[in-house]
Amino acid sequence: HARLRLVVRGGAVELAAAAELPEALGRRLRLAARLPLERAAAGSPDGLYHLAVEDLRLGHPLVRGALPGEVRLAGLAQASLWARMEGGRLARLAGRGELAGFELALGERPPLAAARAWGRFDWRRVADGWRLAVADFQRLAGAGGAVAPPAELAVEVRRGPDGAVARVRAAARTLRAEDAAAVAAAVLPAEARERLARAAPRGLLRRLALVATAGPQGWRLALALEGQDLAVAPDGRRPGFDGLDLRLEASERAARVALAARDVTVRLPRVFRWPLAARRLDGELHARLDGDRWRLELPRLRVENADLAGEVAGVVTGGLPARRANVHVDLAARFRGHDAGRTPRYLPVAVIPPPVVEWLDRAVRGGRAPEGAMILRGPMARFPFRKAGGRFLVRFALEDAVLAYARGWPRLEGAAGEVAFSQARLDATVGRGRVLGAAVSDLRLAIAELGRNAVLELEGRAAGSVGDGIAFLRATGLAGAGYTRWLRHVEGEGALDLTLSLRLPLGHAARARRDYRGAVRVREAVLRDLERGVALTRVHGRVAFSPAGLASERLEGRLLGRPVRLRLRPAGGATRLEARARLPVAVLGRLARRPLPGFVSGGAAWRLEALLPRGGAPAELALRSDLRGVAVALPAPLGKAAGEAVPSWLALTLRGETVESVRFRYGARLAGRVRDPEGRPAGELRLGGEVPARAPAEPGLLLAGETAFLDLDGWRALLGTRAPPARGPSGARAPAAALRRLLVEARRVRFLGREWPSVELAATREPDTGAWSVVVRSPQVEGTVRLPGRAGGPVRARLARLRLEPQPEEEKKEEARRGQAQALSPQGVPALDVRVGDLRYGARALGRWRVVTEPLPEGLAIRRLEAEADVFALRGRGTWLERGGRQTTRFEGTIESDDVGAALARLGYARGLEARHLRADVDGQWTGPPWRPALERLDGRLHLVIRKGRLLEVDPGAGRLFGLLSLTALPRRLSLDFSDLFGRGLAFDVVEGDFLLEDGDAYTNNLILEGPTARIEIAGRIGLARRDYDQRVRVTPHLSGGLPLAGALLGGPAVGAAILLFQKAVRDPLAGVARYEYRLRGSWDEPVVERVREGDEEEAPAMPGEG
Asked: Is the alpha carbon torsion for 555, 561, 563, 564 positive or negative?
């Protein structure tokens, strides 16, 4: 839709038109014009024009067609324009407008874009040029961006007579740098556009005035600029900044910049790693260009921030193009109030080698620099002027500084001194400070060459306490790995002086080993080992340290009041320690943190030798002594008296707190070599004192060798009873638990209270069950023994032969003197299952035996006791107990024989009795072990039956009937006087009776001997302890006319004659039975036999409990 109105009025033509535009072009267009009639008639365009558009799409082809080909537009426009044409040319164009999504591009240049822009403008033609004024211009670069304050811009261009531009004047107020850059980017060449894009200028140009006048020598410029909060991104060597306020006055050959900024940030990424911030930046910069030389003067530039305040003045000159090779600097600076801990932020990393930068970053941790100065003079191509040609110096004082001068070393704190960077060298002197509490004085630190192979050198002195010195050694590890671990648990007192010289490579040279030298001197010091609970007092001496180790010719002190001397020497990168002292063994246990067993007591002179390496290498310790003064309460062959000298040594290899291996020699008695003694031990222990050449590869211990005497009874008592512990007090495996094999030969062995000659033991431990298989060989015993392992069970012995020798009288007396305290305890005897194929006691063959026992809380139960020989057999059971140190044995069983005379002879008794059968049922107990059933200590009951036999040599004083029953020490026979009736013997059909044994006496009231010639009844007491008699004996003869029978029964004519004489003496031998009674009293050796006459009322002693 379009409307057109044309009116001629008052000598003018008026035109008004309005149109609704196609949607693709816009919304609406209005046009108005007033042209003089005569000029219009002549075809002239002179007149006034007004054009208003709404939502005009600038990218439409109709719009593009009206523009030069190199111009591209896009966006939506709202505009109201006024124009005046004079002489056929545009004389003035003014208007206001608003653009949305606007883009303007000239050729291939990046477009000038704005999300929104609006403002007013007025362009006028003047006589020799034109003038443009822009007011209220505002631009929004992107969505969400800030809107700048309204800007004003004026540009005037004048041409000379030749039509060329002769003068340009421009002025602006409140113009954003971003907007100015955007306009410039649209018209600048590509290289300039790229630099402008990298710079990304920001800020506000509060005032800008530029006058450019063309002349014969080129353009003359006059520029005045006032900027606020300006920012430029860094680009290569060109610095960047934020928040800069400045005033600039410049011409084509000179410039003056006045700075008066607050909160400025300067960025020089190639020089400084962090932005440099300034709360205040004041001063001027003067620049001048003379030909191809330029000069920059800083009369006085003041800088202040949170870290420091300072001033810089000087001159920088150079040539074009501006490169480092042709730049000469002459600057001087002073600063004060510097926070030394912030030094890394101000390090010019572009001119300091990285190793030095890294060290400075780490070293300077805090403090203040009250004042300092810098001088930089010379050609920058030669910086830092190592050989000559310039001067570089930074010098500043330090107070309360913290210097971490070497990694892994304690920091220097509270330092006061001076630091100087001179040319390529760093020097620092510290007059006072502290290292771990020690006062430092006269410390010098230097880096002679600040290059990639820089080396730090340090020398100083410190005085403090011994505790400070311990902390220093602990922190640095100077003492070596072995000492460092010990120092963790040590504290000290006393005075200490320290000198130190350190050479620490940096950078590429850091691969080289650090070099240091130093010494510690102590006086009347105290060193306490808190972990071991011991203290070394009154320590005095000097200790030097270096990478080679520690060194001290004489270090003395007292340990538990006893003098100690130490010597330290370097040894191939390690430290060799020698210590001498006379100490109790208990102190050694505390020092080793492994309490010594109770069987070692006393004290001796000791010499300790230790090799303490650096790093993770193992340490070597050796302890030597003749052990004079030390008592070892161990059984043979290892026991020794305190006064006996046994030269011995012990060598350990340790890694940290872990013992890796042990080597030792205990005189000529025992030696060994063991790996991993506190873990899974593997080694060999050798009797005889020869150290094995190497430890076996397989785990476990081998005990081998020869010894003169082995006290197995003592070792059993020491190592325990039925279940030795598998672990010791420290948690390590007990030596007995680690044994896996034994190969031992002993000339004498004490076992079960007896001595066994020429014994060979070969034993192997089963790894799965822990059981032992033992083979025993000697002249007295041969067989195998199996000791139970973790599965339990009895000790099983299968002995082909066992020969026991009678105990010598001397040993019996000694045993009686020692008493039961030295005897074998039943509580120490494990469960047993023992079989002996051939048991002999002296020359007596006792046949096959078997014993089966089971432990009880107070001893053991004998579940089965069997013996079988060709002439006797034994079956029984019993107990062996110990209560309150007193042992008792009880036996309940049966003894039988079918050849009693031979059995008595086999058991060591005279053959006073011949019989076809004997049975004794015993239920008794005695004080002592089972193998010593002394009748004088026997209590209990005995039932005896003997059949079809003969009592031999029953003469006066020799017929001790009860002697037939003695198994050990009872006199041979009970004597009765029947010489008037019997001659050389008495045959019997049966002997039977019961005995009560109590308190060393045997009582009977029913012992009867029934024979073909007589009946003998015995009642009374036999003193087993007092060896006496108190009995009544009744003899009832079986008399008849059968004298031949009597003679046959009594064994011969002599006996028959005796009977005949006896018959003649009686009143009426065939009329009835005659009885005769005797009283037997007195000792066994000289008994008194008295005839008891008729009418005598005296009775035999009563049984206990009956009378």
From this structure: negative
Cα–Cα distance, 42 to 124 (Å, whole number):
25
Pairing verdict, β 1001-1010 and 276-290: unpaired
Mean local confidence (pLDDT), 506-533? 75
- 161 by Cβ neighbours in 10 Å (0-12 / 13-18 / 19+) ranks as exposed
Q: Which region holds residue 11: left if phi is over 0, alpha if psi is between -120 and 50, else beta? A: left
Sign of the dihedral defined by the CA atoms of residues 185, 186, 188, 194, in that order: positive
| Pairing status of strand 832-841 against strand 795-804 | parallel
When mean pLDDT is compared across 487-491, 645-649, 820-824, the lowest value belongs to 820-824
- Number of C-beta neighbours around residue 192 at 10 A: 12
3-state helix/strand/coil string of 344-395: HHHCCCCCCCHHHHHHHHHHEEEEEEEEEEEEEEEEHHHCCCCCCCCEEEEE
Task: Burial-class residue 511 by CB neighbours within 10 Å (0-12, 13-18, 19+).
Answer: exposed
Give the C-alpha separation, 147 to 556, whole Å: 85
pLDDT surpassing 50 at residue 433: yes
Paired sense of beta strands 938-952 and 913-927, if any: antiparallel
N-to-C CA span, the chain: 163
Q: How many CA atoms, within 13 angstroms, populate the side-chain half-sphere of residue 978? A: 31
pTM: 0.56
Alpha helices in 200-272, H assignment, sequence order = none
- Residue 197's H or E segment, with its range, is helix 190-199
Per-residue pLDDT tens digits for 537-553? 888 999 888 877 788 88
CB 260 within 8 A of CB 245: yes
**The amino acid at 329:** V
Beta carbons of 742 and 703 less than 8 angstroms apart: yes
Q: Which of 601, 600, 599, 644 has its CA nearest to residue 626?
A: 644
Q: What are the backbone dihedrals phi and psi of residue 887, each rounded to the nearest 5 degrees, phi first?
A: -100, 140
Q: Which residues pair with 659 in a beta bridge?
A: 654
Evaluate the CA torsion angle 271, 273, 275, 277 in order and state its sign. negative
Give the model confidence (pLDDT) of 998-1050 as tens digits. Answer: 988 999 999 998 988 888 898 999 888 888 888 888 888 876 533 333 333 33
pLDDT tens, position by position, 210-260: 888 988 888 888 989 999 999 999 887 788 889 999 999 999 889 999 998
User: Are the beta carbons of 433 and 440 closer than 8 angstroms?
Assistant: yes
Element (H, E) at 61: helix 61-65
Per-residue pLDDT tens over the stretch 83-121: 898 888 888 889 999 988 888 777 777 787 888 889 998
**Mean pLDDT for the stretch of residues 769-785:** 92
User: Can you give the pLDDT at residue 630?
Assistant: 94
